[in-house]
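Slide 14.
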Amino acid sequence: MQRKISILLLVALMGCSTTQQTTEQAKWKPTYRVQAGANKGGITENTDMKVVPNAEVDAYSGATRTGFNAGGRVVLPLKRNAVETGVDFMYNNQTFTYNDATNGYSGTRKVGTSQVMIPVTYSIPFFRKNNPHGLFQVKLGYLAQINMFNVSSSGTNLPAYSTKAFSNGFTLGVSTTPFRLKNGAKVGLFFEGYRGTQVYEDFYNKTDFEMPGTSFMKYGIIYEF
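Slide 15: predicted structure.
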């Protein structure tokens, strides 16, 4: 009799354990997002004219316009945290102004940069009591960029330049999807930053200078399926 009771208790416990695991799996499963917004940055130009031979302080400057970005993401559960990856597109437009009589450069160069980006980040959710994804997520990791450029120049003389089709670096971001729609989807916000390798080189932005590289911050709206 005791043996039968023990077997029944074991079966019941296994059933409860399976139900609990199934419930947890149902709560924490892969999710899919699309996001879109604005961005600032792109080519990070050198601002230290002391490293440029014979250049005055105002010999060279850069200006960046606000661009746009859009992408699709998948969030894959990894125990209590997650891995987030996907494909993003970003566009930005920059203008470089040359006013260096000593070195003989004068004019402007406009650079439109289109980038296809693949992030791979480790996402940590916070405040998970009522949501297995957390009230918000902090993510950090790696970002690869494929770069395409549209360059136009005007002026009496501009320095030669070169660009790189591939760049990569470190990314950090925060996201939240607190608003649930009637169809079950969620809406929220994101903010992401990046610092990576150099993609543009000229007389004022040489590879051996400390500052040149790529960087951006982007922000916008998330729609989570």
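Speaker note: The first strand starts at residue 31 and ends at 44.
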